[in-house]
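[agent] plan:
  1. take the single chain provided in the ticket
  2. run structure prediction with default settings
  3. attach structure tokens to the ticket
  4. add a short note for the reviewer (M.T.)
[agent] executing step 1
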Amino acid sequence: MKDIKWTFVLFAIAAVITMCGIGISIGANSIPGAIISVLALLAVMGFGFKTKSKMRKQGLL
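[agent] step 2 finished; step 3 output follows
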């Protein structure tokens, strides 16, 4: 197994936290909180994929 890419571990943890935020917001009947959590999830996932493609182009993956 190769070395761990800690940036991707942090992206994954951030995505899980935002997914939990979606569930908590829905449970608390907070529509604005759910919308903010969904937008945060999209931002985290988008930035993670962008970082992965940039690292792949640089030959680091």
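[agent] step 4 note for reviewer: The mean pLDDT is 94.
[agent] ticket updated
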